[in-house]
Model the fold of this input.
Amino acid sequence: MKRILFIALAIIILAGLPLASCGAKTTKISVVTDATYPPFESVNDQTKAIEGFDIDVMNAIAKEANLEIEYVNVAWDPLLAGMSQGTYQMAISCITITPERAESMLFSNPYYTAGQIVVVQKSNTTFKSKEDLSGMVGAQLGTTGAMEVEKLAGCTLKPYDEIGLAFQDLMNGQVVAVICDSPVGTGYVSQNSDKLKTIGEMFTTESYGIAFSKGNEDLQKKINTALAAVIKAGKIDEFAAKWLR
Done:
């Protein structure tokens, strides 16, 4: 009887092994982001979690692709350098797809289109558009906004590690304007409507993509398939209505 019980117990244990294996956790994929760029990505003061438009987009894509992800908060300049050098596998952080960046990293299909806009003090009556600008203009280091400032005759770029610091200096009169992505600029104006305003229209058209380090073509393909499903389901518009108001 003991022998029969032992054999039965062994069968039960062996039968359970595949189930244990099937229940193993999926390896997490780290997604880097510069969480200082609201409303796209920022750290919630109460929960300390990273949140925003990009985060909702990435979470929806991960769910569709059956991926488990974790976010890593990295400053903008090291983020771009890390993606180029293969330090990081994937990033979402309002990264404009440019030919120069595409030489050193891979991109998903675009998930959002924005552009650059100029923000000045509300009391400023001298500047009507970017062509009128002269003096010290703030922008985040390494961004397309900084690139646009450098194209303007009579303007000197004052680079910042965080865009919020640029707007703080603008309100304090340390720079004459800030150039940044339109949803970010209008967001700061909305929060400081007594101090800030935009001038002119959005003057560039830029597409954001999820970035991958070279060699991650399979992951790129998987993300693109999931992104297409997320777009088709209307999720991008839903997240835009939530965050980009």
Summary: The two ends are 73 Å apart (CA to CA). The first helix runs from residue 2 to 22.
